[in-house]
Design goal:
By secondary structure, the chain is mainly beta. The protein has a single domain, classed as Sandwich (Immunoglobulin-like). 11% of the residues lie in helices and 34% in strands. Strands 3, 5, 8, 11, 12, 13, 14, 18, 19 and 20 form a ten-stranded mixed beta sheet that branches. The chain has a three-stranded antiparallel beta sheet with strand order 7-10-15. Strands 9-16-17 form a three-stranded mixed beta sheet, with no helix packed on it. The radius of gyration is 18 Å and the shape is globular. Mean pLDDT is 76; it is low at 1-39, 41-63 and 255-270.
C-alpha cells in the first residue's frame, strides 16, 4: 500500500481543446509523493471525474498499484535530487524556455502490443506565492490566479508499449512561458510560484479518445520547482552551469545570478 494525497485542480469548462504545439487541455488529478517513497505515487482516474478547486494536499488516502499497471521511472533522479535540495528554479520567458534538468522517464510493465499515449502537465504545488530572502524561499502571500493547465502530448503518441519501453522518453520540447496570450501551446506559469510536473499514461490508440480514458498519473516530488524570470539562488545557478552543456554563456560571463541582473541570450537552453 502507498499513501498519497490528492490535490484537486481548477476545472476547465467545456470539451478538451487542442491548441498548437501538441497540448491538450482538460482537468486531471495530482497525486504528490511523500519523501519516504522511492517510487512515484500512482493514481488512476477518468478525465471527466476530476474535481474543482486548487488547494494544499490534505486528504490522505491509500492506493495500490495493480500488477498490470505500467511503471514510470524518473531518469537522472540523482541530478533532480541535487537541485531539489537547493530549491529548484526554472526560468520562464515570454518566448518560452525549456527546462533543465529536462524531464525524462523510462517505462516498464506495459502491454507490448497495446498502444499508449504519454502526456505531461505542470500544476500548482500549493496556493502560495514565494519570495527569495535571506538565501531561502519564503511564503509571501496567496497565489495569483492560474491559467487553465495544458496537457503536453509526447509527439511519439500513440505508440506501442514495446516502443515506449525500448527508449528513454524525453519531454525536452516542453517549454515554460509567462505569456498569458501564448498561442504556441507552451505551459503558462506565474513567476514566484511553486509547481509540480506530472507524467500521465493512457492506454489509447487515438488521441481523440483521451477525454474518455482512464489516466494513470505518476508524480516525483523531487521535480517540484519555483518559476522565476531570473535565477535567485546562486547554488541553483551553479548547478545549472556545472551540469548543463548549453550553459556556456554563464560560464564565460558569470551573469544571471540574481533577479535584477540581465539574463544573457546564450543561456536560452536552461
Amino acid at each position: 500500500m502507498r499513501s498519497f494525497s490528492k490535490l484537486f485542480l481548477p476545472q476547465i469548462e467545456g470539451q478538451p481543446t487542442f491548441p498548437a504545439g501538441g497540448t491538450l487541455m482538460f482537468p486531471t488529478i495530482i497525486s504528490p509523493r511523500g519523501p519516504s517513497h522511492p517510487e512515484p505515487i500512482f493514481h488512476s482516474c477518468a478525465a471527466e471525474q476530476s474535481s474543482v478547486f486548487s488547494r494544499p494536499a490534505d486528504i490522505l488516502e491509500s492506493a495500490e498499484m495493480a500488477e498490470d499497471d505500467p511503471q514510470i521511472y524518473l531518469e537522472a533522479s540523482e541530478l533532480w535530487e541535487q537541485f531539489h535540495k537547493c530549491g529548484t528554479e526554472m526560468v520562464i520567458t515570454k518566448s518560452g524556455r525549456r527546462m533543465f534538468p529536462p524531464l525524462k522517464a523510462r517505462c516498464a510493465g506495459m502491454d507490448r502490443k497495446a498502444k499508449y499515449v504519454l502526456l505531461m502537465d505542470i500544476v500548482a504545488a500549493d496556493d502560495c506565492r514565494y519570495k527569495f530572502q535571506s538565501s531561502r524561499w519564503l511564503v509571501a502571500g496567496k497565489a495569483d490566479p492560474e491559467m487553465p493547465k495544458r496537457m503536453y502530448i509526447h509527439p511519439d503518441s500513440p505508440a506501442t508499449g514495446e516502443q515506449w519501453m525500448s527508449k528513454v522518453v524525453n519531454f525536452n520540447k516542453l517549454k515554460l512561458t509567462n505569456n498569458i496570450s501564448d498561442k504556441h501551446g507552451f505551459t503558462i506559469l506565474n513567476s514566484m510560484h511553486k509547481y509540480q510536473p506530472r507524467f500521465h499514461v493512457v492506454m489509447a490508440n487515438d488521441i481523440l479518445k483521451l477525454p474518455y480514458s482512464t489516466f494513470r498519473t505518476y508524480v516525483f516530488a523531487e521535480t517540484q520547482f519555483i518559476a522565476v524570470t531570473a535565477y535567485q539562488n546562486e547554488k541553483i545557478t551553479q548547478l545549472k552551469i556545472d551540469n548543463n552543456p548549453f550553459a556556456k554563456g554563464f560560464r564565460d560571463t558569470g551573469n544571471g545570478r540574481r533577479e535584477k541582473r540581465q539574463v544573457i541570450p546564450q543561456f536560452k537552453a536552461l
